[in-house]
Amino acid sequence: MKDATPSAFSLYEKELDYIKKEKLFRAPTTYNPISATTVEKDGRHYLMMASNNYLGLTHHERVKKAAQEAIALYGTGSGGARLVSGSHPLFEALEKDLAHFKGTERAIVYNTGYMANVGTISALVGKGDLVISDELNHASIIDGCRLSGAQRLVYKHKDMKHLEELLREAQNGATSASVRLIVTDSVFSMDGDIAPLDELYGLATKYDALLLVDDAHATGVIGHGHGSAEHFNLRGKIHVQLGTLSKSLGSVGGFVATSDLIGTYLRNKARAYIFSTAISPADVGAAKEALAVIQDEPQLHEKLMVNIAYLKKALHEASIAVETETAIFPIITKDTEKTLAISKALYEKGIILSAIRPPTVPVNESRLRLTVTAAHDEEQLARVVRELRGVL
Ligand SMILES: *Cc1c(COP(=O)(O)O)cnc(C)c1O
Predict the structure, then answer these.
(1) Is residue 217 in contact with ligand 1, taking CB distance under 6 Å?
(2) Cα 85 from Cα 132, distance rounded (Å)
(3) What is the pTM of this model?
């Protein structure tokens, strides 16, 4: 019998054609990373202004050595899920260090930040519960909310009045939820602004809700590097603080810093924790050492703050409008095609800056997203501003 082509194939081809037509087609580019700020491709060096490696720790000697030592000690793979065979002393030590760093009783490591959100949210709320989410939250939060089966409400970006309205309605029995969960990014990944955690905590307390805060872009950056709770003087108070090992911590993995009760609950309920092979010993060793380096070398965080201030001032002087409170600099260009053209022109000048398009951001809000790290120097940043001025 002749092999038949599944009819699905033509549907996928059509969808890909549509994506291309809309200038939304994506494919990864392969680079050779040379340092925390520079990559090489076809014999040419490019300045990396698009990574979330905020403290440059992916290339720190101590962190690299710790990863190698972890392999020498425990091998290349973890061989199983944490609850089966994948736990080892480095894991326990990392979770203890993370909890200490965040000021919580417990930390639980997941395999990615994405899985930490999906696993945690879908464990904390379910059918009959309510989850209320900021409209600009990260995709992994949105997916966690969807997967949970809980009723979902979305409040306008950082709009505390709107959030309170929704909480009040929920309380008035408009919905019969048993658990109410408020979820938010602390540092919004495409805008670089900060959620009003003090007000969010106040509302959570007033309406007997749980508060989950995603610190993916806050850890290593705000609150002297400890994240948003510290930034708002709420150390140890936020019910669930989520983080990733893959940005400032130079490794891969995600974590939740929380109470003993919720930590124990998640270990028993979060499917993303239970049913997936643990990250490798090298990942754990690198993250643990990175956390130690952040604390031993406060000059790294200071350098990041200096670079942020320098870049803000230089962009302002070049009349390039950017609003940010963190290491993420969004340069709003609106039109998708124009954004791509600018990103390409910068690439030809040897600078990598991502073009962010729908569905990552709303339609007509395409932008260039520039991220600065502690590893950049002033000369590099000055060059970026100069080239940006040339192409904008
Ligand atoms: C990057 C990111 C995540 C996902 O973390 P990974 O470790 O990359 O999976 C979750 N939340 C936010 C806000 C992020 O920016």
Answers:
(1) yes
(2) 36
(3) 0.95
Ligand 1: residue of 140, 157, 273 to mutate (most ligand atoms within 8 A of CB) is 140
What is the model's pLDDT at position 177? 57
Nearest atom of ligand 1 to the alpha carbon of 188: 13
Helix axis angle, 113-124 relative to 260-269, nearest 10°?
A: 100
Point out the ligand 1 atom lying closest to the alpha carbon of residue 253.
7
How far apart CA 106 and CA 263 sit, in angstroms, is 6
CB 47 within 8 A of CB 371: no
Q: For a ligand 1 pocket test, name from 244, 276, 356 the mutation site with the most ligand atoms within 8 angstroms of its C-beta.
A: 244
Q: For residue 345, report the distance from its CA to the centre of ligand 1, in Å.
A: 28
- How far is residue 281's CA from residue 66's CA, in Å, rounded to a whole number? 10
What's the N-to-C CA distance of the chain in angstroms?
58
Residue 189 designated active-site: yes
Contacts of 308 (CB under 8 A, 6+ apart): 324, 326, 327, 372
- For residue 5, report the distance from its CA to the centre of ligand 1, in Å: 37
For the cut 80, the answer to whether the pLDDT of residue 175 exceeds it is no
24-75 pLDDT tens trace? 899 999 999 999 999 999 999 999 999 999 999 999 999 999 999 999 999 9
Catalytic residue selected from 138, 217, 288, 303: 217
Q: Whose CA is nearest to atom 7 of ligand 1?
A: 113
pLDDT digits (tens, 9 = 90+) for 192-220: 999 999 999 999 999 999 999 999 999 99
The H or E element that residue 222 is part of is none
The predicted-structure confidence for 64-123, as pLDDT tens digits, reads as follows: 999 999 999 999 999 999 999 989 999 999 999 999 999 999 999 999 999 999 999 999
Residue 258 Cβ inside 6 Å of ligand 1? The answer reads: no
Secondary structure letter of residue 30 according to DSSP: P
State the alpha helices, DSSP H only, in the chain.
Answer: 7-21, 61-74, 89-102, 113-124, 139-148, 160-169, 197-206, 228-231, 260-269, 271-274, 281-296, 298-317, 336-348, 378-391
